[in-house]
Design goal:
The protein has 5 helices and 4 strands. By secondary structure, the chain is of the alpha+beta class. It has one domain: Ribosomal Protein S5, domain 2, CATH 3.30.230.10. A 4-stranded mixed sheet has the order 1-2-4-3. A hairpin with a 3-residue loop joins strand 1 and strand 2.
Length: 137
C-alpha cells in the first residue's frame, strides 16, 4: 500500500515541463546556431564597454537572436562562465531588444566582474544602443 501512495506522487517529466514552462523563457528560436551566424556577426558592427563587446547584424527575421561567447581563457572556472551566460540571457529576455530583427553576439571581456550591478547596467546600455540603432535603420 505504501508503494501505491508514493507512485501516485510521481509526475512524469513531460507533464512537469508542460505545467511549469515559463512564458518568457529563452526559446531555441532566439538562439544563433553555431553552424550559421557567429562568423558573420563577429565581422559586423560592434559596441563595447569595460565588460562586454556586442556584435550585431540584421537577420531579416521578426525577432532578435542571441549568441554568447565567454572564453575559458578569461574566466577559467566553469561556474563563473555559466553564471555570466545566465545573466546575459536573462538581461536579453527582459529587454525590449527582442523585437528587433537582428543577430547579437555578446562577448565577455577579460576584466574582473566584482560589481555585478555595473555589469548589468553596462549590458543594458549596450542593448539600448543597439535597439536605437536598429530603430534608425
Amino acid at each position: 500500500m505504501v508503494a501505491v501512495q508514493s507512485f501516485a506522487l510521481v509526475v512524469p517529466r513531460a507533464v512537469q515541463d508542460s505545467l511549469f514552462k515559463q512564458q518568457n523563457s529563452f526559446a531555441a528560436a532566439q538562439r544563433i546556431p553555431r553552424s550559421e551566424g557567429y562568423g558573420q556577426c563577429l565581422k559586423s558592427h560592434v559596441f563595447s564597454d569595460k565588460y562586454f563587446k556586442l556584435f550585431f547584424i540584421p537577420n531579416h527575421k521578426k525577432m532578435a537572436r542571441l549568441g554568447i561567447v565567454v572564453a575559458k581563457r578569461y574566466m577559467p572556472k566553469s561556474v563563473d562562465r555559466n553564471q555570466a551566460k545566465r545573466e546575459i540571457r536573462e538581461l536579453f529576455r527582459v529587454h525590449q531588444i527582442k523585437g528587433c530583427g537582428i543577430d547579437l553576439v555578446v562577448m565577455a571581456r577579460n576584466t574582473e566582474r566584482t560589481d555585478q550591478g555595473a555589469c548589468r547596467d553596462g549590458l543594458n546600455k549596450l542593448f539600448s544602443r543597439v535597439a536605437m540603432r536598429c530603430a534608425e535603420s
